[in-house]
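Task 17 of the worksheet. Students: predict the tertiary structure of the chain below and write it out as structure tokens. Keep your answer in the requested format; marks are given for formatting as well as content.
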Amino acid sequence: MTIPAPVERIERAIRLIRGEKVILDSDLAALYGVATRVLVQAVKRHIERFPPDFMFQLTKEEFTALRSQSVTSSGWGGRRYPPYAFTEQGVAMLSGVLNSPRAVQVNIEIMRAFVRLRRWLASHAELAEKLAELEAKYDEQFAVVFEAIKQLMAPPETERKTIGFRGKSDNT
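Model answer:
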């Protein structure tokens, strides 16, 4: 069976809102091949399955900010209400609400995308930690290097010749 949604498309649909990795209802509807209103209606029929940590509706301010950040806002053109955002758990719960074969396949790919994203973030956290360790280590080493450079830049101490008139007692 072919994958109904390209991995890149799914990964681009994952956004960070309120500190959560989410996918908006319109993006999910496009991935599932249904109208956004159909997806939202299905969710509302089973609203007890979607607590606030699974799904939340954006505020008008968040929606305005999201539209201003997006290059193409035409996908949200005539909406009368802000979109719903689904967390990874909310997307998983959608598999029980939308039961078509396409929805099942898309959900599998979305779950895989969330897992890849978590792995990627974990590897970057490890790299950031190693970089911090290296910076601390090299800061000490660079302090020694900078001190050596300062010493090289300082003019050498030489005996100074006396300037001015010398008397007979100074030459002897």
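Marker's comment: The longest helix spans residues 101-153. The chain is about 60% helix and 10% strand.
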